[in-house]
Automatic annotation (TrEMBL):
Domain ABC transporter: 3-190
Keyword Transport: yes
Any single Pfam family the record assigns to this protein: ABC_tran
GO molecular function, one term: ATP binding
Organism: Sanguibacter biliveldensis
Entry keyword annotation includes Ligase: no
Superkingdom of origin: Bacteria
Gene3D superfamilies, per database record: P-loop containing nucleotide triphosphate hydrolases
Organism classification: Bacteria, Bacillati, Actinomycetota, Actinomycetes, Micrococcales
Keyword annotations of the record: ATP-binding, Nucleotide-binding, Transport
Signal peptide: none
Protein name: ATP-binding cassette domain-containing protein
Length: 193
C-alpha cells in the first residue's frame, strides 16, 4: 500500500501491515512523514493511491484527533454519554457508563463542567473516553500524551494497553518516547537514510 497527495511525493510506498487485536501499535516518524494520513487511511476516510486496505471484523472505528473538539456549553459527561445513547442504550445506563469511563480517565470531578471550562489535558482525555464509549474495534489516536504531564501521560498509555487487552486494535501516532516504549509494535514512517 502506498500514498501520495496530488502533486506531492510518495509519503509511503510498499507499506504492508497486518494489524491484529490485543495489540497497541505506535506510529512514529518526523512531522510531515504521513502519520495522520496513515490514520486516515486506516479509518477508511482516505483512499490510498496504491494498494488496498482489507478490514476484517472491524465494525466501529474510533478516532481521536490531536486537537480536542467538543460542544462548548455541553457537560463533559454528556459528551461521553452521547455515543452510548446512540448505540441504543437507555439514558440512565448511558450516564452510568459515561461516569465509569470518566473515572477511568481521572475525570470524575469535572463530569458536570461544560466542555469550554476544561483544561487542554482534560479535554484530550475526554476525547479518549468519548471514542471508547462508542465501543470501537479499531481505535486510532493522534498524539494522546502531547498536552499531558508525565503522570497523566502514563495513565493514558496504561489505559490504551488495557483497552487493547480487551480485544481492541489500538494505533497511536506519537512523538513521546515513553508512550512509544509502552506499545507492543512500532510502525516507523521515518525515511530510510
Ligand atoms: N489533504 C491533503 N492534501 C495535500 N497534502 C496533504 C494533505 N494532507 C496532508 N498533506 C501533506 O502530506 C504530508 C503528511 O501529512 P501528515 O499530516 O500525514 O503528517 P504527520 O506525520 O501526521 O505530521 P505531524 O507530526 O506534523 O502531525 C504533509 O507534507 C502534509 O502537508
Amino acid at each position: 500500500m502506498g500514498h501520495h497527495f496530488p502533486g506531492g511525493h510518495d509519503l509511503f510506498s510498499d507499506l504492508t501491515l497486518a494489524l491484529v487485536p490485543k495489540t497497541v501499535y505506535a506510529l512514529t516518524g518526523p512531522s510531515g512523514s504521513g502519520k495522520s494520513t496513515l490514520l486516515g487511511i486506516m479509518a477508511g476516510w482516505i483512499t490510498p493511491t496504491a494498494g488496498a486496505v482489507v478490514r476484517d471484523g472491524i465494525q466501529q472505528v474510533g478516532r481521536v484527533f490531536q486537537n480536542p473538539h467538543g460542544t462548548p456549553g455541553r457537560t463533559a459527561v454528556d459528551h461521553v454519554a452521547l455515543p452510548v445513547l446512540a448505540a441504543g442504550h437507555h439514558r440512565d445506563e448511558a450516564h452510568d457508563e459515561a461516569m465509569r469511563l470518566l473515572g477511568d480517565f481521572g475525570l470524575t470531578s469535572i463530569a458536570d463542567n461544560p466542555f469550554r471550562s476544561l483544561s487542554g489535558g482534560e479535554a484530550q482525555r475526554l476525547m479518549l473516553a468519548r471514542a471508547i464509549a462508542g465501543s470501537p474495534d479499531l481505535l486510532l489516536v493522534d498524539e494522546p500524551t502531547a498536552q499531558l504531564d508525565p503522570h497523566a501521560a502514563a495513565t493514558i498509555t496504561a489505559s490504551l494497553g488495557a483497552l487493547s487487552r480487551e480485544g481492541m486494535i489500538v494505533v497511536v501516532a506519537t512523538h513521546d518516547h515513553r508512550a512509544r516504549e509502552a506499545c507492543d509494535v512500532v510502525i516507523d514512517l521515518a525515511p530510510v537514510p
